[in-house]
Write a structure and sequence with these properties.
Elements: H1 4-29, H2 34-41, E1 52-56, E2 62-66, E3 68-75, E4 78-83, E5 95-98, E6 106-111, E7 122-129, E8 139-143
Antiparallel strand pairs: 1-2, 1-8, 3-4, 4-7, 5-8, 6-7
Length: 144
């Protein structure tokens, strides 16, 4: 059985470790850090959490989503992902990836500017194969 000195030392070490972890977390994610200021100054991207996300089948059907009002397949391998009115995708950095089960040679690209979907609150997702050409591929898309 540990004596009182050992218990006290372990308790103090644990408290210091927890305190250091909290301080490090605040330094990394806090809004007053130079890194956070620099991120906001470069393009004004807002990325504290996902404001929109969707799992989309190759035919354009939405499996599940949040912040997404619709997905429309406009051509082979081309999808318009429409967002809620309060989400401005041009101020974020959207990310898209192929879904599990898609061919290894499948590739997914995402763009939030002026596209075949028009202007406004949407992102464009293009899918295909690295071996060439557009193909319908299931994907995930996240708009931070």
């Amino acid at each position: 059985m540990p004596n009182k000195t050992t218990v006290l030392m372990l308790t103090a070490a644990t408290a210091l470790g927890i305190g250091a972890g909290v301080a490090a977390n605040a330094a990394i994610g806090g809004t007053s850090t130079p890194q956070a200021t620099a991120r906001a100054a470069i393009g004004g991207a807002i990325t504290p959490h996902a404001t929109a996300a969707a799992v989309v089948k190759a035919n354009g059907a939405v499996v599940r989503s949040t912040g997404v009002t619709a997905v429309r397949r406009i051509a082979i391998g081309q999808y318009c992902v429409y967002l809620e009115p309060n989400i401005d995708a041009t101020k974020t950095i959207p990310v898209a990836t192929k879904m599990w089960g898609a061919p290894w040679s499948a590739t997914v690209l995402v763009y939030s500017g002026n596209t075949a979907c028009g202007t406004g609150r949407h992102v464009f997702v293009g899918t295909g194969y690295t071996t060439g050409g557009a193909h319908d591929v299931p994907f995930h898309v996240v708009v931070p």
